[in-house]
Amino acid sequence: MSLTVFTAAVGVVILLFILELLRRRQIREKYAALWIVVLVAVVPLALFPRISDPIAHALGVASGVSLALFGGFVFLLLVCIHLSWEMSRLEEETRTLAEEIALIRTRLDEKGQVER
Amino acid sequence: MTTQRILMILPAWNEADSIGNVIGEIREVLPTVDILVVDDGSTDKTAQLAAEAGAKVAKLPYNLGVGGARRLGYKYAREHGYDVAVQFDSDGQHDPRYVPALVAALDSADLVIGARFAGEGDYQARGPRRWAMSLLSGVLSRVAKHKLTDTTSGLRVVARPLIDVYATWYPVEYLGDTIDTLAHVARGGYRVVQVPVTMRPRAGGVASANPFKSTVYLGRAVLVIVMALLRKRDV
């Protein structure tokens, strides 16, 4: 099996996996959409690596393959940063919930003492 | 001080050894104030002992860190209409005898800090930790337009307007609960003053004198203060 076919096959398998997660409602649409767009772009690039050469040359990069590699790194870095940001937001949200729960529990305890 | 409703907020995380004595001492010295212990996800008997000693107890479902515990305290103070909130430690480091003087200073301020290095006591720090502390007090004194010698002190007293601010906004990050809150309100135009106090040695553990840790502390302090000053004024 040649490298191009292998790479494309991996792309297709991951694409199917994302679609399956989406079908089972295991992944939010906003994240699924991101990966579907990426994979739909990756599969043709894998089969015909030369198609990105013109863009690479226009940017002064020797080959389309290295441009794709560089682009992939930058993209993954941005995704990681985005996830850190989402995590921070989630932590702030769960923190607020924890505080509200403690307040409600305290109020219930105080009410209970009055009734007794 | 007699007509104001005062709430002491004590965040406590596994402080079963000291909490009973600390509450007992507060009730002896300040019989009219209410005490709220915020149990920050303790796994020991902190909450039970605090309730037995006569404090109100708010129990967090898991450990949030001191910032989260304090914000919960301020939320409680706001909901129950307290006039004054006192931030206090549950490890026996703070002396309740200073609280009346701190509360009295609220007449001319919104936030009063109980400060070491201000004539009382003999607390000393060395090396990078000392540089960090003098950098912080230098910058924050300028922002607050009042000489502040102990910006990382956890002994603080605030009145109504800041209870409302802290109930919605209180950072959970390391140093955020001390430095960030101070820079935030000073830039927001609230009046910050300090009153000299002595602090007692902590019941357990000592402040780190390890040079590496002190250097990390300095770095974090610089980051926190620079970020606090770069933020928009949005109080």
Automatic annotation (TrEMBL), chain A:
<keyword id="KW-0472">Membrane</keyword>
<feature type="transmembrane region" description="Helical">
    <location>
        <begin position="6"/>
        <end position="22"/>
    </location>
</feature>
<dbReference type="InterPro" id="IPR019277">
    <property type="entry name" value="DUF2304"/>
</dbReference>
<dbReference type="Pfam" id="PF10066">
    <property type="entry name" value="DUF2304"/>
</dbReference>
<feature type="transmembrane region" description="Helical">
    <location>
        <begin position="55"/>
        <end position="81"/>
    </location>
</feature>
<protein>
    <recommendedName>
        <fullName>DUF2304 domain-containing protein</fullName>
    </recommendedName>
</protein>
<keyword id="KW-1133">Transmembrane helix</keyword>
<feature type="transmembrane region" description="Helical">
    <location>
        <begin position="31"/>
        <end position="49"/>
    </location>
</feature>
<keyword id="KW-0812">Transmembrane</keyword>
TrEMBL record, chain B:
<dbReference type="InterPro" id="IPR029044">
    <property type="entry name" value="Nucleotide-diphossugar_trans"/>
</dbReference>
<feature type="domain" description="Glycosyltransferase 2-like">
    <location>
        <begin position="9"/>
        <end position="160"/>
    </location>
</feature>
<dbReference type="GO" id="GO:0016740">
    <property type="term" value="F:transferase activity"/>
</dbReference>
<dbReference type="InterPro" id="IPR001173">
    <property type="entry name" value="Glyco_trans_2-like"/>
</dbReference>
<keyword id="KW-0808">Transferase</keyword>
<comment type="similarity">
    <text>Belongs to the glycosyltransferase 2 family.</text>
</comment>
<dbReference type="Pfam" id="PF00535">
    <property type="entry name" value="Glycos_transf_2"/>
</dbReference>
<protein>
    <submittedName>
        <fullName>Glycosyl transferase family 2</fullName>
    </submittedName>
</protein>
<dbReference type="InterPro" id="IPR050256">
    <property type="entry name" value="Glycosyltransferase_2"/>
</dbReference>
